[in-house]
Q: What sequence folds into this?
């Protein structure tokens, strides 16, 4: 019996041709951010949350995303409403989970003590990943996520393709002016390096950036305009500085020239 199961499991492992990795917050489910949570709690008259730390109950490092309440009603109602689901990514998830040759993984920066909460929300949408991987509060999300991808590639050597969905990409990093938010570029770097060592049979990889949900085109433009304006100003200042330096140099040469002549 056990041997049969073991053989079955082994066959399954060698049958995997695609690994699909989904981020949770703001990728699969639009859970409220700390800022939005405050407004929701205010509406619900949850005084403690607004006034103090009780409702947000930070467990470690005062991180909102580590708090149980961040995934409980009223912040995430029970059952979780469809409006919080990212329909487009959810369709990709269902397609992946329904395919036995694909390994469907949810890889989230949320800590292990919130696994039950995440499973409850996933359950509300009848989502069952092959694996749900969390990141301990003592680790940082990006290196841990890369480590998990590496382990999956080792565990499923027949993988021909990796596809990922994440919201922390170049767009978000630029929008909020936080370069460290760009996890997607790092995933890409890692997979490129992996392929360079793999030699003749590189794996295909595709990383989908999920755009921030609440951002309007005008906000996007404002950010863009600010960035362009900043760059323009910097360029102008640099050119001015260069001109000033050239002028000073010219003046200096003029001063030293007669001296040089008199030496002759
Ligand atoms: Mg996310």
A:
């Amino acid at each position: 019996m056990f041997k049969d199961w073991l053989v079955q499991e082994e066959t399954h492992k060698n049958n995997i041709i695609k690994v699909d990795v989904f981020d949770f917050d703001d990728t699969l489910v639009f859970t409220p951010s700390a800022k939005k949570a405050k407004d929701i709690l205010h509406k619900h008259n949850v005084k403690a949350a607004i006034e103090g730390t009780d409702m947000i109950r930070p467990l470690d490092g005062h991180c909102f995303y580590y708090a149980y309440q961040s995934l409980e009603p009223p912040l995430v109602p029970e059952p979780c409403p469809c409006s919080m689901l990212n329909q487009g990514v959810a369709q990709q998830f269902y397609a992946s989970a329904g395919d036995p040759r694909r390994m469907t993984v949810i890889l989230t920066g949320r800590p292990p003590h919130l696994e039950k909460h995440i499973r409850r929300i996933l359950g509300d949408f009848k989502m069952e990943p092959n694996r749900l991987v969390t990141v301990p509060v003592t680790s940082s999300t990006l290196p841990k996520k890369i480590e998990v991808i590496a382990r999956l590639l080792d565990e499923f050597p027949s993988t021909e393709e990796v596809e990922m969905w994440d919201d922390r990409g170049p767009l978000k990093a630029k929008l909020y002016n936080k370069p460290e938010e760009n996890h997607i570029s790092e995933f890409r770097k890692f997979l490129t390096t992996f392929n360079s060592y793999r030699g003749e049979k590189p794996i295909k990889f595709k990383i989908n950036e999920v755009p921030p949900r609440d951002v309007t085109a005008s906000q996007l433009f404002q950010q863009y305009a600010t960035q362009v304006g900043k760059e323009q100003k910097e360029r102008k200042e640099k050119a001015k500085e260069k001109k000033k330096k050239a002028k000073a140099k010219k003046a200096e040469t003029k001063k030293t020239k007669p001296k040089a002549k008199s030496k002759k």
Observations:
- The longest helix spans residues 217-263.
- The chain has three domains: 12-31+77-215, 32-75, 216-264.
